[in-house]
Amino acid sequence: MPPIATDNLLTDTDADSQSLELKIAPAPLRLVQFFVNTRANYIDHEDLEEPEDLARWLKDQGVAGKGISVTESDLRWAVEVREALRALLMAKGLGEEDPVGMTFRFDQHGSSAVVPVAEGVDGALGRILAVAFGADPEMWRRLKVCANPECRWAFYDRSKNRSGTWCAMAECGNVMKGRAYRKRRRAAAAAREDLWKTHGPPRALG
Ligand SMILES: [Zn+2]
């Protein structure tokens, strides 16, 4: 069997070859991106392990004051909101330009308003969500999550036709392309076998 050509796995589109740095969204939308990326699935890294981590992060991003105090349940809530945001970015990446009827439900408060009037963690999270919902539609469309289900890192797609799919970690694009490539190979091998069953194996020309 000839060696598997791996060269074609590396031919990325313009969009895929953007560096991670270039894939940072413009302000203020990057706040949403950075929040989603406080968890890096790909390397199984969580920035928000403890309530103090969340407090520090919110202060660093300027969405909470110095005096903010964060409880365990605040932390769980923040992580829920974050994963809802990731899911929203994922859903809008599935071909629908502007998914209709998607909204955040604030079960905890029985209201779905996204107005940062609350104090503390709710207010800080509200500011992040307000950025998401107030984003310029074109910019919002460009904020995506990586197509690798094991990754889902949020990135900003600066390609001309918004065709970017991967977070820009070379591994992600290559892992997924490798998978598609192996699938195509398997399909081709199966088709060849079918052909042989019907017509017999190819004979040497002579
Ligand atoms: Zn990725």
Observed structural traits:
Jann2411-like fold, disordered N terminus, 4 strands, binds zinc ion, single chain, two-stranded antiparallel ribbon, two-stranded antiparallel sheet, about 210 residues, 6 helices, mainly alpha
Number of strands: 4
Provide the list of bound ligands, each named once.
Answer: zinc ion
What fraction, in percent, of the residue positions are helical? 40-55%
What characterizes the major β-sheet? 2 strands, antiparallel
Whole-number mean pLDDT: 77
CATH class: Mainly Alpha
Secondary-structure-derived class? mainly alpha
Overall body shape: elongated
SSE order, one letter for each helix or strand: HEEHHHHEEH
Adjacency order of strands in the biggest sheet: 1-2
Tell me the Rg in angstroms. 22 Å
